[in-house]
Design brief:
This protein is α+β, with helices and mostly antiparallel strands. It has a domain of about 90 residues. It has three helices and six strands, in the order ββαββββαα. Strand 1 and strand 2 form a beta hairpin. The N and C termini lie far apart (about 105 Å).
Length: about 140
């Protein structure tokens, strides 16, 4: 008889921060989303047959999202988490940049210095004298 998938993993709850936009009020906030991290056990559980050994060899660590809905921090409306990805393999996440690194890369690619924010509006140029003269001879 084949073993249940949970017999191959250690489960640990985890909370991760994520930025989402409320579809009602259009404000973006940072939310805590609950996940379950399933880590592959270091050895095969007892009572496993050949089919279980083959399955165990192919298994990887992954995160499974527990929450499907969030409550907006501004308007209080519940909304669905927009990403369709509720399962993420841990080895795929290892190479992804975090938000701060991504912002630094974007600033470097655009040629802006890292510490400088948006430049302030430049002073308006002076209006040419020909537009300031009083009109004469108009009827």
């Amino acid at each position: 008889m084949s073993l249940d998938e949970r017999a191959f993993f250690n489960e640990r709850p985890e909370t991760r921060k994520a930025r989402h936009q409320c579809p009602r009020c259009k404000r973006t906030n940072e939310y805590s989303v609950r996940w379950v991290r399933r880590s592959k056990k270091d050895r095969l559980p007892g009572g496993a047959d050949e089919q279980d050994r083959a399955k165990f060899a192919k298994l990887r660590d992954y995160l499974l999202r527990v929450e499907d809905e969030l409550t907006c921090a501004e308007c209080g409306k519940r909304f669905e988490i927009p990403s369709q990805q509720s399962l993420v393999f841990v080895d795929q996440m290892a190479g992804l940049p975090n938000d701060e690194e991504l912002e630094r890369e974007i600033q470097a690619a655009s040629g802006e210095p890292a510490g400088v924010q948006e430049p302030e509006a430049a002073a308006k140029p002076a209006i040419p004298a020909r537009f300031l003269r009083k009109s004469t001879g108009w009827k």
